[in-house]
Design a protein that fits this description.
This protein is of the alpha+beta class and 279 residues long. Helix content is 58%, strand content 8%. The chain is built from eleven helices and five strands. This is PRD domain-containing protein.
């Protein structure tokens, strides 16, 4: 495999025999020598396809042991869930665990008031999250607070692949306009500037892309999350009000009504963005 760029000491950007870009990880694969150069397959411990430049930047800054751990456990978790996970699911998990470990090491604890609802609504994801927390302590010696289990479970929920709406072409400009309008609503409601180059923004943009496709196709997400939706609104009233404004925008601009399920997912994604702002 041809290594063309060093990301860090244990990760390099490569090009495989079919001309596809792939991130290869292994102990010391980034050490020594100029690029491009041939990388023996025997030195590669894990590969990641379909990682965009922003994802590559995130991987460059993540601890290699966390990324390798996430890759291993996500291979197992993926077989336990009744749906496909995003190609970036491992990177999402590594990013999440990296922050969780950093918080735990500093003694910072983030309460998850909806932990019971998460466990009841998403039992498979909660069980998988328990497994991840257990393996993290056993393999890396990092012990996370119990509240992190629910948070990791929601990370898995957010990483699931929503079946894309069939369409011959996506109206890119319309989507870009929708994304920018929604972010402007968030910035106005919370009086913040959203970092449009951040990994969290990329994750939210991906979620909004699927929402836009469903709006265009006249489809909607619906499930039995009514209690969780109600509790989330009660715990985060300002966030719920912001999503209400986004819902009004969708009705006025796209003649589409968001289901409670859609509003719930919007609140979860937006909460991750504003939580990084300390709000």
């Amino acid at each position: 495999m041809l290594a063309i760029k060093k990301l860090n000491n244990n990760a390099v950007l490569c090009r495989d025999g079919q001309g596809r870009d792939v991130i290869a990880m292994g102990r010391g694969v980034g050490f020594g020598g100029d690029f491009p150069r041939e990388l023996p397959l025997s030195k590669i411990e894990h590969t990641f396809y379909d990682i965009d430049p922003k994802g590559q930047d995130v991987m460059r800054d993540l601890p290699s042991d966390i990324v390798m751990f996430a890759a291993k456990v996500m291979d197992i978790v993926a077989n336990e869930l009744p749906y496909d996970l995003s190609t970036n699911a491992t990177l999402f998990m590594a990013d999440h665990l990296s922050f969780a470990v950093a918080r735990a090491q500093k003694g910072v604890r983030i309460a998850m008031p909806l932990a019971y609802e998460v466990r009841e609504t998403y039992p498979k994801e909660y069980k998988a999250a328990q497994f991840i927390v257990m393996r993290l302590e056993k393999e890396l010696g990092e012990r996370l607070p119990k509240d992190e289990i629910a948070s990791i479970a929601m990370n898995l929920v957010n990483a699931r692949v929503v079946e894309a709406v069939k369409a011959t072409a996506e109206p890119t400009k319309q989507f870009d306009d929708m994304l920018e309008d929604v972010i402007e609503i968030l910035e106005s409601d919370f009086r913040i500037i959203v970092d449009r180059d951040s990994f969290d923004f990329t994750r939210f943009a991906t979620h909004l892309r699927y929402l836009f496709k469903r709006i265009q196709a006249g489809e909607s997400l619906n499930s039995a999350n009514m209690q969780m939706y109600k509790n989330f609104r009660e715990e985060f009233p300002q966030l719920a009000e912001c999503v209400k404004h986004i819902g009004s925008y969708c009705r006025e601009t796209w003649d589409a009504t968001l289901s409670e399920e859609e509003e719930l997912y919007l609140m979860i994604h937006l909460n991750r963005i504003i939580s990084k702002k300390g709000l």
